[in-house]
Structure formats: structure tokens, C-alpha cells
Amino acid sequence: MERYSRQIALPFVGKAGQAKLGAAKVTVIGCGALGTVAAELLVRGGVGCVQIVDRDVVELSNLQRQFLFTERDAAERLPKAMALAAHLQTINSDVEILPLVTDFSGSKAVDMLTGSTVAVDATDNYVTRFTINDACLELKLPWVYGGALGSRGMTATFRAEGACFRCLFSELPMLGAGDSCEIEGVLASATATIAALQAVEVMKLIIAPHAVQGRILELDVWNSSFHTLSLQRDESCPACRGGLRLFLAGDRLPEASIVCGRNSVLVSSATAQPDLVELAQVLAAKGLVVTRTKFSLRVEAQEREVIVFADGRALINGTSDAHEARRVYQAILGL
After folding, report:
1. CA 184, CA 190: separation in Å to the nearest integer?
2. Contact, 194 vs 202, CB < 8 A?
3. At a CB cut-off of 8 Å and minimum separation 6, what does 82 contact?
4. Are strands 49-53 and 215-220 parallel, antiparallel or unpaired?
């Protein structure tokens, strides 16, 4: 118990609370700016098993805000889940670390969360968050949402008996409306603060669930502003009230296929069917260079040329890396 002595000394933790942490399994979905910090805090705090899920690889641009990753990890383009697991294991060898290098998608979401005590959203897109919401409702599993952009961030905790994520965000945003840190930028202090708050919520859910309040916390670290909003259940919510699990029905994340003979990747999404005129206006308002034709949009961003078609497909020119193409697609179109 010496390792956790300072934590056990807290009256709201104690030996009993520490034992509950040791018996818990937490699944962290996403190993980016939020996930690396949240996972490290949970491992240092003595959560018995931490499962981390991410399909991505470490890149140099990650090191500004994604803790524990090193220049060597980026140079070797190691899978984030594997690199993070290796670093976490050197911090606390008593904790079981389960890295999964895969998408968190509808067809396997419930299986990945089965047996977990709490889930942590450390993702950067709404499709995955809607999938987490459906899977947790199906399993009656509490989960902690988090998001950060610029100097701002937001977090909320969802439990089966209260409001769910779709009570807060009823539908997916239109294509292009979502923001991304690649275009908007982000402060590491904002992501670290939100992740720390998420880790606290996880510990409360494990040790003293009655202490969890149904509120949304918003903050701006640059302006030093913090405020909370009440989280109200939507009686017409199709997920928690209607029982629909639309995001478990199939894989809705963008799929990528390399175009033979060209330095291009075609990315498609089952959730995206944009109005090209409206999409052009949304992207132009973000400062992107957009050229519109009758059947497509040409967007210059992320040092790539992106051709978006009316059915939601996009041709990413300038790369034959499917992972890179999906990253560019999500950064620009925000799903």
C-alpha cells in the first residue's frame, strides 16, 4: 500500500476505496491528448486493469500534447495503443494493461466494453462517441465524455439512469461542421485539464458513484473560466428513451481504399451525404480554399488536395497511406 499511501490518506478514498480501484477495469477509447493523460492517471492511481483502444500510430505532431509518447515512438510510427501500454507498464507493473490496435466500431463495440466498470471517451469524432453511447446504454455502463479544442474543453458523465450523450447532441453534425485540432489548433493545457477531470470522474464512479453529479463542465484555460450546466434527459431521445442502438448496427467510421496506380486514397462514410453548396460555405468559413463544381468540391488543406463528392466519398490526393487519408478526411470533414 506504500505506492498509494498519499491517495489512501484521503478520507473519500481510504483502503476500501483503493481496493475498489484495484478490482476495477476501465476502458479508455482513444490514445491521443485525452487518452494518454487519463490512462496515466488511472494507472498511477491503481486501477486494476486499464484497456486502451486506438487504431492510430504515433506522429511527431502528437508530442506537443499526447503525454508519454517519445520522439522514438514517432520515428518508428508505433501503434499508439502499444506504445502507450509499454510506457504505462514501466510506471506501474502491478496494473494489467490491455492494448487493442483497432477501431472502436459498431460491430465490436459491445464486446470490447463487456466486463468494464467504466468507459472513457478520449476520441475526436462524433461517430465513435455515438457508438460509445449506444454500447454503454446496451451494457448499462457509465462513461465519461471529454473534448477539447483551442483553449476550451468540456466533459460530462453519463449513467444508464440519467441523460445520455444523445440527449446532449441529438444528431451527428452535418459534414464539415465539426471542428478538429489540426485546423483549429489546441493547447496541451486544455487537453490535460479535461483528461484529469475525466480521471477524477472515473474514480468517483468506482469509489463513490453517489458523488457524481449530472452536469456538464465547460472551461477555457486561456481565459481562466470554468462553469457548469445542468444535464437534462430528453424524453424524446431515440437512444436512452426509445431504445434504438443505431450505431451498433454496423461500422459507420470512414473506410479507406487505395486507388490503384495513383498516389490517392478513396475514403467513404455511410453517415455522410452532404449538400455541396452548404458544405462549401462551411469549409470556406474555416479559411479553407474551396472550389466547387456541379458534382464535387475541391478542398486544399493539410497539404493535400481533397475531392469531396455528393455521396460523401472523398478522394485524398497526395498520399497512398490509408491511415493518413482517414486522418485528413476526419480533420476536414469533422465526423
Report:
1. 13
2. no
3. 99, 101
4. unpaired
- pLDDT classification of 18: cutoffs 50, 70, 90: very high
pLDDT tens column, 202-229: 999 999 999 998 899 999 999 999 999 9
Fill in the amino acid letter for 214. G
Q: Is the dihedral of CA 122, 127, 129, 135 positive or negative?
A: negative
Measure CA of the first residue to CA of the last residue in the chain; give whole Å: 44
The closest alpha carbon to 318, from 268, 260, 261, 264, belongs to: 264
Whole-model pTM? Answer: 0.82
Identify which of 19, 33, 34, 36 has the alpha carbon closest to the alpha carbon of residue 203: 19
Helix (H, G, I), strand (E, B) or coil at 274: coil
Q: Which residues contact 256 (CB under 8 A, 6 or more apart)?
A: 265, 266, 267, 322, 323, 325, 326, 329
Q: Is 292 left (phi over 0), alpha (psi -120 to 50) or beta?
A: beta
Grid coordinates given for 70:
517519445
Structural domains in the chain plus CATH codes = 2-248 (3.40.50.720), 255-333 (3.30.310.10)
Phi, psi of 100, rounded to the nearest 5 degrees: -125, 115
d(CA 31, CA 254): 19
Burial of 171 (0-12, 13-18, 19+ CB in 10 A): exposed
Rg (CA), the chain: 20
Q: List residues bridging with 53 in a β-sheet.
A: 29, 100
Show the CA angle centred on residue 30, arms to residues 317 and 178, nearest 5°.
Answer: 55
DSSP 43-103: HHTT-SEEEEE---B--GGGGGTSTT--HHHHHTT-BHHHHHHHHHHHH-TTSEEEEE-S-
- Cell 463487456 locates to 114
Across the strands, what pairs with 157? 144
* Cβ count near 173 (within 10 Å): 14
Q: Which of 88, 50, 52, 44 is nearest to 68 (CA)?
A: 88
pLDDT (tens digit, 9 = 90+) per residue, 76-102?
Answer: 989 999 999 999 999 999 999 999 999
